[in-house]
Specification:
Blueprint: H1 4-12, E1 28-32, H2 34-40, E2 57-60, E3 65-68, E4 80-87, E5 93-97, E6 102-109, E7 112-119, E8 131-136, H3 144-147, E9 149-152, E10 162-165, E11 170-173, E12 176-183, E13 186-191, E14 194-202, E15 206-213, E16 233-238
Antiparallel strand pairs: 1-2, 1-8, 2-3, 3-4, 4-5, 5-6, 6-7, 7-8, 9-10, 9-16, 10-11, 11-12, 12-13, 13-14, 14-15, 15-16
Length: about 240
């Protein structure tokens, strides 16, 4: 699946999922338990085939996007932000992630999310290989401290982006030195090949950046569904 960015572009571009009257029951963060991951490694016919060292994590946002890993078999621990669409009115309830990337059925049982997914557009027939994800609380971090550290980007395109941010605002982005300045929910990045204006969201474990050339101004949202712009949002993992 080295062509993942192309798949994501084709699947997500133009996906204008309408706002529903009621918020999705999936909103918030969910995390697979270590016990469920250990049991998953014993399954030989699992359609997901993600017997990896990391647990599945999903965080659903009110803008109709989800940050999740387990979307690329070669790099299952890397995260991506994509549109989602859920239908809580059908039986069983359905979930579409990234257009044509994953199709799932789900239910919330005793406060936990029971989720069965297949790659592509065909829904699973049942919950035979369902995962169990527990709700978790995430705390967003803002200010200079939010970005300080080393961050590793996804390897879907074959090249891993690394960002090192120091407390004094100095920056190394893919071995290129520059400066970063935080302005509320946005950041200005200055590197030799040009300036970028970004919107950011940070937690203790992840940093999401939506950047574009400075002449285009700051992004107004964390995700842009317009054509190739879907690839401008990148989710980094803290590695320090």
């Amino acid at each position: 699946m080295r062509a993942f960015p192309v798949i994501l572009l084709a699947a997500c571009a133009g996906q204008a999922y309408p706002d529903t009257v009621d918020p999705s029951p999936l909103l918030g963060a969910w995390k697979m338990t270590p016990e469920d991951l250990a049991a998953r490694r014993e399954v030989t016919a699992d359609p997901w085939e993600f017997a990896s060292a990391c647990v599945l994590e999903m965080e659903f946002f009110e803008d109709g996007t989800v940050e999740t890993n387990w979307v690329n078999r070669e790099h299952p621990c890397d995260f991506v932000r994509m549109p989602f669409k859920d239908d809580a009115g059908r039986t069983p309830k359905s979930l579409e992630v990234g257009g044509a990337i994953q199709s799932c059925i789900w239910e919330i049982e005793q406060g936990a999310l029971r989720l069965a997914c297949d790659q592509g557009t065909i829904l699973p027939r049942d919950f035979l290989y369902a995962l169990r994800l527990a709700p978790v609380r995430t705390r967003e971090v803002r200010g200079a401290e939010a970005l300080v550290g080393r961050w590793r980007g996804p390897a879907f395109g074959g090249q891993v982006g690394i960002i090192d941010v120091s407390a004094d605002g100095s920056l190394r982005w893919d071995d290129v030195r520059g400066r970063i300045e935080i302005r509320g929910q946005t950041v200005d990045v200055t590197v030799p090949d040009g300036a970028r204006k970004c919107r950011y969201r940070a937690t203790a474990e992840r940093l999401t950046l939506h950047c574009r050339p400075a002449e285009e101004g700051y992004p107004i949202a964390m995700f842009d569904r317009g054509g190739a712009n879907v690839l401008r949002t990148t989710v980094f993992r803290r590695v320090d």
